[in-house]
């Protein structure tokens, strides 16, 4: 392509990154929020009670079992989710029988009030689940199309990561280098820094993202080598499943789950339980599986204890056998999802995800910053392509966070009894994003940046207020009750809002020195006149 | 009409950089995919006796994305688009021939 | 986790002090030559120890994942400090050393 390998790769890196940068930004940001999807769902269902309880696991299990006996008769498999740090409510779940013409019924979880043992009615919402599913389902598109688009983007991301390493001349000598006050060089430095410090994460998240739909993307290869039965067998070898217990259609009285739990406690020598699965409930074959917090990225047989619910005998489980490749594959899944992470590690996952998001944003901004001096000199104004990129940058890098805030606003402000409420929450988000994408077309770039940054600051700072006005879970209450889930939300919104406000302020003052707010991509000083004059020299130095 | 035709001829004119880039994109996307697939076939044949058939197929698939990435990078570093295409075809044929050869040895039916 | 992060921070501080251009950012006076020579091996030692600790505490599967997370956070913090207030790097290093000892003692 160019004179030498590194130059060709530099060209390739630029265009690979630019062509899908905005979709990648969307995928990274919504995916990053997914690390807190349970917490987000709880925030979006404010009717759920927060109760400081000192009930034992046994009492909670009994409450759940009583509810299930009453309301889930005839359902084969029950799930009970105990209150955890991430989700302080007791929940039960089961899959309803399929409706006509459907293969599977809908899975439904119900939040229980632990004081009364009754169901908690909360507003209809897509919650954090809908938000994080967007990062691979792209919401409006059909499953098939979105998987292929996501795969294509992830493949280009992988290419961008690999070429990025190839073209970075001095990974180790520039490891800590960030010359913030130097315009273009500053943008290049921050792009490098954000890429290099989280390189293992970037590679892991991209490669494992591709692995999720490995058999869809590489279908040609499997089709050439296996027929349908062999394919099924191969999948079984890669993803070994625990044996499912079928019911014998012979009713039998189960023992109390709470007394069966003693078996799990004996095995673990600890009172730590996160979920229970009941197979073939109220049947002669009934079995119960007690699950604790994951302690391994593939499968640790010690995390599960299986008990016969009629005789209360522990059923010895043969550990799942993985092939080495299967272990790698499943390990990548776990690393991508981060289910094993405790509170602090979860925050690190979240922040690292934001670093990835910021890396993409800084790359996109770098593209325009580099071309700015030349484009501004053109007689007829900047090219269409340049203006388009600038517009998409403004509409996505600042617009998408605003749109996500609108998703939260919709949750609080749409009428609770509204028909199609779940759909409209997401519609509000995408309509506002569309508006914010169009808006910069009618404004000069510098004004559009500033106005959208100000808007972002406003919506995020106002979110805790709206929360206080529409629910009783405002900061004073949540802090005094030590409801850290809600308190963290209000504080995070406020912090994000302040970061936006700070960058809007810095953008306005247009100082030559570059200022970086601590939180993601908000370094939004463009170059002022002095800097613009220096640019050609700097870019030569860099090229 | 004539103007339109000449526009298209110019657009896809052999030496024009636009056509060359378009050709490379096609080579990287589809040629790269073909190479990823053929390399997966080769690797699975190579390993099937030592790792078991299914695991061998699986390893081939796991590595195919890396092959794909390398192929795409190579396409864009080759000095011109024709060379990129020829190189891809060569490697594809090499992998397929290797697969065929290994199949002769192992006597596998696939 | 806190232990891993503060140890990673220490290792990264040592790495950066081993480099001329960053040492000048942090210290005005020149350091004894021996100390400078020691920074890099010491940094590798702390890094290796952190890696060992992550595996010992969290196992082969989760340990390395947490180690990389901790390293990312520590490096990011260090780069930001170097850029905006390089002079407080030694104080932060001492603080993280304290944090290490506290979390070791409470363990």
Radius of gyration of chain B: 18 Å
Shape of chain C: globular
Helix content of chain B: over 70%
Largest sheet of chain C: none
Q: Note the run of SSEs of chain B as H and E.
A: HHHH
Distance from N terminus to C terminus of chain B (CA atoms, Å) equals 52 Å
SSE pattern of chain C? HHHH
Roughly what percent helix of chain C?
over 70%
- Rg of chain C (C-alpha, Å): 14 Å
Tally of strands of chain C? 0
Average pLDDT figure of chain B: 85
Set out the fold topology.
The complex is a heterotrimer of chains A (543), B (110) and C (107).
Chain A: H1 5-33, H2 37-44, H3 57-71, E1 78-81, E2 90-95, E3 107-112, H4 127-137, H5 143-167, H6 183-197, H7 199-212, H8 214-217, H9 219-225, H10 228-238, H11 257-268, E4 275-279, E5 287-291, E6 304-308, H12 324-337, H13 343-377, H14 384-413, H15 421-438, H16 445-470, H17 475-480, H18 484-509, H19 529-542
Antiparallel strand pairs in A: 1-2, 1-4, 2-3, 4-5, 5-6
Helix pairs in contact in A: 1-4, 1-5, 1-13, 1-14, 2-4, 3-11, 5-7, 6-13, 7-12, 13-14, 14-15, 14-16, 16-18
Chain B: H1 2-11, H2 17-51, H3 53-77, H4 81-106
Chain C: H1 2-17, H2 20-26, H3 33-85, H4 89-106
Helix pairs in contact in C: 1-3, 1-4
């Amino acid at each position: 392509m160019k004179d030498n390998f590194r130059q060709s790769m530099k060209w390739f890196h630029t265009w690979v990154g630019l062509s899908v940068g905005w979709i990648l930004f969307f995928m990274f940001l919504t995916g990053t929020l997914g690390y807190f999807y349970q917490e987000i769902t709880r925030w979006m269902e404010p009717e759920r009670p927060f109760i400081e309880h000192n009930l034992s696991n046994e009492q909670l299990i009994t409450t759940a079992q009583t509810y299930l006996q009453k309301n889930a008769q005839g359902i084969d498999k029950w799930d009970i989710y105990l209150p955890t740090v991430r989700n302080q409510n007791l929940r039960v779940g089961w899959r309803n029988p399929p409706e006509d013409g459907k293969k599977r019924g809908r899975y439904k979880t119900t939040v229980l009030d632990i004081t009364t043992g009754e169901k908690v009615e909360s507003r209809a919402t897509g919650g954090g689940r809908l938000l994080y599913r967007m990062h691979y389902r792209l919401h409006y598109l059909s499953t098939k199309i979105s998987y292929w688009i996501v795969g294509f983007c992830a493949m280009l991301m992988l290419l961008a990561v690999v070429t990025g390493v190839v073209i970075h001349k001095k990974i180790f000598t520039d490891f800590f280098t960030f010359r913030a006050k130097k315009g273009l060089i500053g943008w290049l430095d921050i792009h490098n820094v954000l890429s290099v410090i989280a390189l293992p994460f970037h590679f892991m998240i991209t490669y494992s993202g591709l692995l999720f739909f490995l058999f869809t993307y590489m279908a040609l290869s499997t089709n050439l080598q296996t027929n349908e039965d062999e394919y099924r067998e191969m999948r079984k070898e890669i993803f070994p499943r625990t044996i499912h217990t079928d019911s014998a259609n012979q009713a039998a009285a189960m023992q109390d789950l709470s007394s069966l739990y003693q078996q799990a406690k004996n095995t673990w020598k600890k009172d730590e339980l996160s979920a229970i699965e009941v197979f073939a409930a109220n049947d002669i074959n009934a079995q119960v599986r007690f699950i604790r917090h994951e302690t391994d990225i593939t499968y640790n047989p010690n995390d599960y204890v299986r008990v016969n619910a009629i005789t209360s005998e522990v059923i010895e489980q043969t550990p799942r056998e993985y092939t080495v490749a299967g272990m790698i594959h499943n390990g990548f899944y776990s690393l991508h999802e981060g289910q094993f992470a405790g509170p602090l590690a979860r925050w690190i996952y979240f922040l690292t995800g934001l670093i990835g998001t910021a890396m993409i944003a800084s790359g996109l901004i770098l593209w325009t910053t580099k071309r700015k001096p030349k484009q501004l000199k053109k007689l007829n104004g900047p090219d269409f392509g340049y203006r388009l990129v600038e517009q998409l940058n403004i509409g996505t890098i600042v617009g998408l966070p605003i749109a996500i805030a609108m998703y939260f606003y919709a949750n609080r402000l749409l009428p609770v009894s509204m028909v199609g409420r779940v759909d409209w929450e997401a519609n509000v988000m995408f309509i506002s994003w569309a508006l914010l994408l169009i808006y910069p077309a009618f404004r000069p770039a510098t004004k559009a940046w500033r106005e959208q940054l100000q808007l972002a600051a406003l919506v995020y700072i106002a979110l805790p207020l709206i929360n206080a006005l529409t629910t009783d879970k405002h900061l004073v209450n949540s802090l005094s009750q030590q409801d850290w889930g809600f308190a963290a939300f209000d504080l995070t919104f406020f912090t994000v809002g302040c970061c936006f406000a700070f960058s809007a302020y810095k953008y306005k003052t247009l100082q030559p020195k570059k200022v970086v707010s601590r939180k993601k991509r908000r370094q939004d000083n463009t170059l002022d006149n002095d800097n613009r004059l220096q640019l050609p020299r700097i870019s030569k130095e860099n090229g | 009409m004539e103007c339109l035709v000449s526009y298209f001829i110019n657009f896809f004119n052999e030496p024009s950089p636009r056509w060359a880039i378009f050709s490379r994109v096609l080579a990287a996307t589809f040629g790269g995919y073909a190479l990823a697939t053929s390399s997966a076939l080769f690797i699975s044949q190579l390993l099937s006796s030592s790792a078991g058939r299914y695991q061998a197929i699986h390893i081939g698939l796991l590595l195919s994305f890396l092959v794909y990435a390398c192929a795409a990078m190579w396409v864009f570093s080759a000095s011109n688009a024709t060379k990129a295409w020829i190189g891809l075809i060569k490697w594809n044929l090499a992998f397929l021939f290797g697969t065929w050869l290994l199949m002769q040895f192992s006597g596998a039916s696939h | 986790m806190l232990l891993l992060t503060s140890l990673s921070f220490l290792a990264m501080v040592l790495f950066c002090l081993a480099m001329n251009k960053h040492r000048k950012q942090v210290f005005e006076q020149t350091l004894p030559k021996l100390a400078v020579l020691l920074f890099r091996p010491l940094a590798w030692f702390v890094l290796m120890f952190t890696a060992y600790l992550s595996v010992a505490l969290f196992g082969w599967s989760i340990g390395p994942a947490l180690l990389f997370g901790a390293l990312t956070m520590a490096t990011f913090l260090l780069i930001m400090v170097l850029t905006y207030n390089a002079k407080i790097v030694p104080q932060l290093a001492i603080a993280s050393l304290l944090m290490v000892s506290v979390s070791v003692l409470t363990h």
